[in-house]
Write a structure and sequence with these properties.
The complex is a heterodimer of chains A (303) and B (150). Chain A is mainly alpha-helical and 303 residues long. Chain A has one domain. Chain A contains twelve helices and three strands; from the N terminus they run H-H-H-H-E-E-E-H-H-H-H-H-H-H-H. A three-stranded mixed beta sheet of chain A has the order 1-3-2, with helices on both faces. In chain A, strand 2 and strand 3 form a beta hairpin. In chain A, helix 2 runs parallel beside helix 12. About 6% of the residues of chain A have low confidence. Chain B is mainly α and 150 residues long. Chain B has two domains: 98 residues, Winged helix-like DNA-binding domain superfamily/Winged helix DNA-binding domain (Arc Repressor Mutant, subunit A), CATH 1.10.10; 44 residues, no CATH class. A two-stranded antiparallel ribbon of chain B has the order 1-2. The radius of gyration of chain B is 19 Å and the shape is extended. The chains are: A mainly alpha (303), B mainly alpha (150). The interface between A and B is large, with 82 and 62 residues.
Chain lengths: 303, 150
């Protein structure tokens, strides 16, 4: 089989490698570009796995007998080991996707249950001291905050939190994040892209809040205060993997605060298009691999 | 808050209609969407201020706690609206009212939230947090920024 079947994987690695640079240069509202590129990469890489796994068919007696009957020389396009590995990777990917989706659904259901217990209205407040704020998607979307978050901030800063969470709901950011998570589940090479999308979505909501409140400094202050109010409860030393992923893309609160204290991001049109080009390239590679595979099995169904 | 003046006019003139508003599930017609949303946003701000307070607040106190440059009447209108919706309650304090948030199934909500926050890593990753983990040096940096501001 041609090299094109492995290309999507290589291009996924490339996309992951450049995600850190791209995050610093892309406009936060363009997170969708990353998601599209990641979806193309994930789809192409998964299809590549399907093709590789399908070469195992050559080893089945059914195909082998058929080949013998027609006097066709069967050559193994890829080593059996690669075919088996692809099959296992495929199964793992599907299991991970199922898990991501069930966890998402379960968490959202629980968040909505908490909102429901808090009463009606857009804003749901829980009497907890730890400062937290969440956008809870649904119809209608709701904002869930703890009392600790509200008491840690003044009136203007509370408006920042509300505007930030509303930006998540209005921009349907949960869908972008879910899509990026599914991609990373299918193709773990895309995990940095998932983190990049999560960061961009937060940045986008920060910028929206800055537009609504009219002050980027105010948003930076609210963010810093909220993060500091969390103290140890907001730190996550128990999960080294999570903090490592955060460090990799540099997408902590401090990076967001730093971004808000600089000038507003200037759009660089070349950056999103190059990310998209990468996605398109993987798609072309996948098509090429499919053609190669078709040529391989052509003798089975000549008509 | 450049558009604040417009909101004030809108709210007070629509006060009568506001009582017979359709439930929030029904989408209002497009033209009035902007004004309605602005009112909803203010409701959330006032409610948040009441929750953040240590005790019941008068309208004047709410106005100060919300910040910005809201008119007294606007705050009053929103308080009445929140009261009508059953989201806040009030006690008579002399000739004025003092308002405080109605705490729904408070214990249940806090319990559920606590459980939700103590879930495993992959569940936490799903949560879209306003502010996430802080390393020691990050915390130091943020503190320095806040100190410089104030």
């Amino acid at each position: 089989m041609t090299i094109s079947v492995y290309l999507p994987a290589a291009l996924s690695l490339l996309l992951a490698a450049i995600s850190r640079i791209v995050v610093a240069r892309i406009a936060p509202t363009r997170a969708v570009v990353f998601v599209i590129a990641a979806m193309l990469c994930a789809a192409a890489a998964t299809w590549g796995l399907v093709l590789l796994a399908a070469t195992l068919l050559g080893d089945t007696t059914l195909v082998a007998d058929e080949a013998l009957e027609r006097g066709v020389q069967l050559q193994d396009p890829v080593p059996t080991l690669i075919g088996v590995t692809a099959m296992i990777a495929l199964i793992f990917g599907i299991v991970r996707v199922a898990r991501v989706l069930t966890v998402r659904r379960a968490m959202n259901r629980e968040l909505r249950a908490v909102c429901g217990a808090c009463g009606g209205g857009e804003l749901a407040v829980v009497s907890l001291d730890a400062p937290h704020a969440f956008a809870v998607p649904g119809r209608p979307g709701r904002i869930l905050v703890t009392r600790g978050m509200l008491t840690a901030l003044d009136g203007d800063e509370r408006r920042v939190v509300l505007a930030h969470e509303r930006a998540h709901l209005q921009g349907r950011h949960h869908r972008l994040r879910a899509a990026a998570e599914v991609c990373a589940a299918l193709n773990p090479m895309l995990i940095p892209v998932r983190e990049a999308v999560a960061y961009l979505v937060e940045r986008s909501a920060d910028e929206h809040a800055a537009t609504v409140t009219g002050s980027r400094a105010l948003v930076a202050r609210a963010l810093a205060k909220a993060a500091l109010a969390g103290g140890s409860s907001n730190r996550m030393p128990a999960w080294p993997a999570a903090s490592m992923a955060l460090r990799f893309t540099g997408c902590g609160v401090s990076a967001r605060v730093a971004a808000l204290r600089c000038d507003p991001p200037r759009p660089e049109p070349l950056v999103p298009s190059s990310v998209l080009a990468l996605g398109v390239a993987t798609t072309i590679a996948a098509v090429q691999a499919t053609i190669a595979f078709y040529q391989l099995i052509y003798w089975l169904w000549p008509n | 808050m450049g558009s604040c003046g417009a909101q004030v006019v809108d709210l007070t003139s629509q006060d009568q209609q506001a009582r017979v508003e359709q439930p929030p599930e029904q989408r209002p017609p497009r033209g009035r969407m902007a004004a309605r949303r602005a009112a909803g946003e203010l409701e959330a701000e006032v409610l948040a201020a009441l929750w953040a307070a240590d005790g019941p607040l008068t309208t004047a106190h709410v106005r100060r706690a919300v910040g910005g440059d809201l008119a007294y009447n606007t705050v009053q209108t929103i308080l009445v609206r929140l009261y009508d919706k059953g989201l806040i309650d009030r006690v008579a304090e002399g000739r004025r009212h003092e308002y405080f948030p109605v705490k729904g199934a408070e214990e249940l909500a806090a319990e559920q939230m606590q459980a939700l926050l103590s879930r495993g890593r992959d569940r936490q990753a799903v949560l879209q947090r306003f502010a996430t983990s802080l390393s020691v040096e990050d915390a130091r940096m943020l503190r320095a920024i806040l100190r410089r501001r104030s």
